[in-house]
Structures are given as C-alpha cells and as structure tokens.
Here is the input.
Amino acid sequence: MKKTLSGIIVLLVLFALAPRVTAGTPYLQVYFDDEFLYWSANCPSAPIGTVFQTIYIVGHDFDAWLNAIEYRLVLPPQLFFLGDVIPPGSLSIGTSPDGIAIAFPVPLNAYSPVLVSRVSVLWMCDHCLPNQERPICFDVYPSSGYLRAVRWPDLSLIYGTSGSAVICATGPGPYCADLPIPVERTTWGHIKAMYR
Here is the structure.
C-alpha cells in the first residue's frame, strides 16, 4: 500500500511539473507586420531614407502575466532607429537600441504571443544586394546582463532569449545567438529529498 501511494505521488508530481519541462524557452521576436507573420523583409525599392516602417516586438512562450520586461534591440545599419512606441500608460526607461525597461500598468497576458512594444525605423537601403543579409537580434539589458520579464502577481523573474529576424535573407536561420539564462543551483541530495 505504501509503495502504491508513493508511486501515485511521484506520478502526480511529474504531471504537475510536465508543463514546465515541455514549455519552450521564452523569447522576443521582431515582426514586420501587425499580424506577427513576417520576421523577414527586404530593403524597399525606394531612395535611401524615404521609407518609414514600424516593427513589432513580440513575446513568445512566457506563459505568465507580465508586469515588466527589459531587453536591448540590436538593429543592423540598414534600419535607422527613430523611436519606441510603448503601450499607452506604460513607463519606460531607455531606448530599444541602448536597452529599455518597460513597466505595464495592467499586466500583459503572455500565455500566447503578446505585443510588448513597437519600434519606428527608417530604411537606409535600396534593394537587397549580395551579402547584405543582416539579423535583427535582441541582447541583454545592460545593467542586469539578461533579457528578462517580471511575472505578476508574485514578481518572479522569467529569463528569455532572442528570436531571429532578418533583412535580405538568403538562407535559413538561426541568425541570433542564445542569451544567458541563469540556472538554479542545487544538490543531488536536495533533489532526492523532494521525492521522499
């Protein structure tokens, strides 16, 4: 009886932890459209510096309500940064290219892809030339050393990485490197004690 009860408890714990194990790593992704379909674009056929574009910063796989987020956006030279457009009522410190921290007045539902902010850019290229392929990646927020969000209501930190967007794509990605994600340190004895 005791072994059966222990087996059932272990199975319940495994089922409770399964969503955490199978969930993907949270990441931010740049899209070139408001429907979050296109993560790749080509230089427009127009004179340099005459085409305005809004790009969309979208969070994926955070699986939580978000109070705040911090990151840095690395734009290639073909896109000139004009400004950030944060959600109404939000507070922000910094700019996307230098590192931005955004606090939301009402937590964002990040159980599905969620719009974090928009960035206004100016295209500084005319047509795609050979070897002009450039990634648009996210990097860590300068003062913390991480791309991270704050979960509501318990204010736990959720660490994320960069999705890959590209201009003038010539081949398949990935284009962006993974960002550091801290790992909780523990001992084997502590892990065994959880199942006693």
